[in-house]
């Protein structure tokens, strides 16, 4: 991985003296979140983002984005966030106090004839789904604040080679990711606000048993443990279509459980590979847009409560899909609904996830005053677990470069569910964003 | 000097009016000439949008746009370059010559890092907070000829230029609802076949907005709008759009009119 970063750094040094047109932009954000239960401050942070973009030649550009975050009050992660278990050491550095510096993006991109290339730390989004993911699995997520931050902010960019070239009536994309960085979840037992506790993700252990968590076995071989993917996109008869393939490590840790003769439990976090084959589509019909995607993963790993299972994890293929409809028939209003389904094709009794899992999402967005004021209401509901998340948000463009924000986040349902596990974390948020 | 220009305008105007009255063009024929006006095979230009609300607070946004004809099909792509909260936003449209075929539109929202297919039936919706509709952004002074019936109301001098006053009325209530107007009165300059001014009424018959184009110049031999000012009479909101760096000569890469290009950003 260091090799990849070094190559990019060398390119940067090589081109620096000849940087023709350079633009620098920045944004300062501050946000405060207060929990309803007890009125505790969940977070109060200050974030500074700086980005630069330099045209090296007419066709080649260098882009970089860095982020500094200072947590004045932080109930989101306590102590060491366990970076080694999830991501590259150079990704972020912890500074004085509760602050950190993170390199978000750094890449060179451009054209070589008809071929487009982007080399470096970047994000790639696949698929058509909003909020939850089927094909959008190239970049891992930072679950420090679950899925509540801006979409762009909880994705973790990766060192990637991304090549796109015209092919027949479409575009072929080749992706190579030699970056072994995975989903970042709050440390188990840390007491962080969004620490996962649901049996869907965490093996349940009798309270009388002693538990040890082994060191995470994270893949680290530059070539052998890299991810590779191919996507072909085309536009035919009004349809946007894509076919996708990705050979990758699942970004979610697999927590294998072993019990010794004395009843002591050891949890070993690991990562496993899978093939993902899928596709997506979208088209507009009058005021409606239909969109969807489907993905088949050959090797998925689910926690089981079956005591006879040797490691508490069952391997099975999984078929996932989403179908969504957007409606824009009312002026300044955007309405969207989605149905997500996950089907475990080789289900075994004891798996904590249902064989068929369905989640629904609804989004109502209304803009007022020539888009100065935006209100948003969002629901994500799990049909199986009857839990979910309701979000209400308001954004006011006070000036061209100043946005005031406020929001409410409610979790409901069973503590065993994906969303219900955070039922004590309902909160109100306010924030300011200033661009420069 | 001013008198000379004014007299020249009147003289040109009198010739034009004579020509018009001789040919006795109908409203539809006038708009066919507007639509047939040469606006270049392709163009690159930047424009600044100054959005002023009724309190006088102005937001300024900057964009770069490309347009190119692929046979009868017109493709347009816009990228926002400032300020921060909209930078990177991209809008792509395929405008088909066959009016019975819905146009195709995509919007790239950098916060989602995703190109979203959007409905083309929102033609009368305001375009990203401006007082332009999606239709006006896409058509650039031209219109979908089958959307309206036309009536020539007379001749009028606008800013010293002779114009033909044409009233356009949506052909049915469905189109009226889609476009958000019950009628439009335009003042077409017959020397360049561009509107110097237009007044729009909403579906309830209330005066909606006035569009004026005070600066039209020839660039690379093509008459080009350098400035458009829209006043929304209902909200008091104004949009002032100023074009600069208009270039009809430099080639425009075909691949820029693609979803991939929206994601890659302006290059």
What would you say this structure looks like, in words?
The complex is a heterodimer of chains A (436) and B (267). With 436 residues, chain A is mainly β. Chain A has one domain: Porin, CATH 2.40.160.10. Helix content of chain A is 4%, strand content 55%. Chain A has two helices and 23 strands. Chain A has helices at residues 2-15, 151-154; strands at residues 21-35, 41-55, 60-74, 92-95, 99-112, 115-122, 144-147, 158-167, 170-177, 211-213, 227-236, 239-249, 254-259, 265-270, 273-285, 288-303, 313-327, 333-344, 356-368, 373-382, 387-399, 402-412, 427-435. Chain A has an 18-stranded antiparallel barrel. Chain A has a three-stranded mixed sheet with strand order 10-14-13, with no helix packed on it. In chain A, a hairpin with a 2-residue loop joins strand 11 (227-236) and strand 12. Chain A is globular and about 65 Å long. Chain A starts with a helix and ends with a strand. Chain B is of the alpha+beta class and 267 residues long. Chain B has a single domain (2-264), classed as Clam (outer membrane lipoprotein receptor (LolB), chain A), CATH 2.50.20.10. Chain B contains five helices and 13 strands. Chain B has helices at residues 2-23, 27-36, 134-139, 173-179, 259-264; strands at residues 42-52, 58-70, 73-82, 90-95, 104-109, 114-118, 148-158, 161-170, 183-189, 194-201, 207-219, 222-232, 238-247. Chains A and B meet through strand 5, strand 15 and strand 16 of A and strand 2, strand 6 and helix 5 of B.
């Amino acid at each position: 991985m260091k090799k990849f970063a070094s190559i990019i750094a060398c390119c940067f040094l090589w081109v620096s003296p000849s940087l023709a047109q350079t633009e620098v932009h920045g944004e300062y954000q501050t946000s405060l979140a207060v929990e309803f239960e007890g009125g505790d401050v969940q977070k109060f942070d200050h974030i500074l983002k700086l980005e630069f973009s330099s045209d090296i030649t007419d066709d080649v550009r260098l882009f970089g984005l860095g982020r500094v975050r200072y947590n004045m009050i932080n109930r989101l992660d306590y102590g060491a966030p366990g970076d080694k278990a999830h991501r590259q050491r150079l990704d972020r550095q912890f500074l004085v106090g509760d602050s950190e510096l993170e390199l978000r993006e750094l890449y060179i991109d451009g054209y070589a004839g008809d071929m487009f290339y982007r080399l470096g730390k970047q994000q790639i989004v696949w698929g058509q789904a909003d909020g939850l993911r089927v094909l959008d699995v190239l970049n891992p997520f930072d679950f420090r604040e679950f899925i509540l931050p801006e979409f762009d902010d909880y994705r973790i960019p990766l060192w990637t080679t991304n090549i796109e070239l015209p092919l027949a009536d479409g575009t072929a994309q080749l992706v190579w990711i030699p970056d072994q960085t995975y989903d970042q979840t709050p440390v188990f037992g840390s007491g962080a606000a969004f620490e996962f506790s649901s049996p869907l993700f965490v093996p349940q252990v009798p309270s009388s048993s002693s538990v040890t968590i082994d060191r995470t076995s994270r893949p680290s071989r530059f070539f052998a443990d890299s991810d590779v993917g191919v996507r072909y996109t085309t536009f035919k008869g009004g349809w946007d279509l894509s076919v996708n393939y990705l050979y990758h490590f699942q970004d979610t840790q697999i927590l294998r459980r072993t019990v010794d003769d004395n009843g002591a439990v050891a949890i070993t976090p690991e990562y496993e590979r899978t093939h993902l084959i899928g596709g997506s589509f979208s088209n507009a019909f009058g005021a409606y847009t239909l969109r969807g995607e489907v993905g088949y993963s050959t090797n998925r790993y689910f926690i089981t409560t079956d005591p006879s299972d040797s490691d508490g994890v069952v391997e099975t293929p999984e078929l996932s899909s989403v179908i969504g409809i957007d409606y824009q028939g009312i002026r300044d209003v955007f309405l969207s609904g989605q149905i997500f389904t996950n089907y475990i094709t080789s289900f075994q009794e004891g798996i904590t996830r249902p064989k068929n899992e369905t989640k629904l999402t609804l989004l109502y967005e209304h803009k007022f005053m020539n888009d100065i004021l935006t209100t948003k209401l969002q629901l994500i509901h799990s049909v199986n677990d009857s839990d979910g998340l309701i979000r209400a948000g308001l954004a006011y463009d006070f000036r061209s470069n100043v946005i005031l924000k406020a929001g409410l986040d409610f979790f409901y349902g069973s503590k065993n569910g994906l969303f219900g596990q955070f039922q004590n974390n309902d909160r109100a948020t306010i924030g300011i964003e200033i661009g420069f | 000097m001013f008198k000379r220009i004014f007299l020249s305008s009147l003289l040109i105007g009198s010739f034009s009016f004579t020509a018009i009255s001789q040919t006795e063009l109908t409203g539809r024929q006038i708009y066919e000439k507007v639509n047939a006006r040469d606006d270049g095979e392709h163009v690159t230009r930047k424009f600044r949008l100054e959005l002023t609300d009724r309190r006088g607070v102005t937001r300024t946004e900057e964009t770069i746009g490309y347009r190119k004809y692929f046979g009868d099909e017109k493709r347009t792509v816009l990228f926002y370059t400032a300020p921060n909260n909209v930078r990177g936003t991209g809008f792509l449209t395929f405008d088909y010559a066959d009016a019975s075929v819905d146009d195709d539109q995509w919007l790239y929202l950098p916060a989602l890092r995703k190109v979203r297919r959007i409905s083309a039936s929102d033609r009368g919706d305001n375009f990203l907070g401006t007082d332009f509709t999606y239709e006006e952004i896409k058509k650039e002074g031209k219109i979908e000829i089958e959307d309206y019936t036309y009536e020539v109301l007379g001749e009028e001098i606008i800013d010293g230029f002779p114009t033909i006053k044409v009233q356009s009325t949506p052909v049915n209530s469905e189109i009226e609802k889609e476009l958000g107007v019950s009628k439009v009165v335009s003042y077409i300059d017959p020397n360049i076949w561009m509107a110097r001014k237009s007044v729009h009424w909403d579906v309830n018959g209330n005066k909606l907005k006035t569009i004026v184009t005070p600066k039209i110049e020839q660039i690379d031999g093509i008459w080009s709008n350098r400035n458009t000012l829209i006043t929304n009479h209902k909200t008091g909101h104004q949009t002032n759009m100023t074009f600069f760096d208009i270039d009809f000569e430099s080639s425009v890469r075909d691949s820029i009119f693609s979803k991939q290009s929206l994601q890659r950003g302006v290059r």
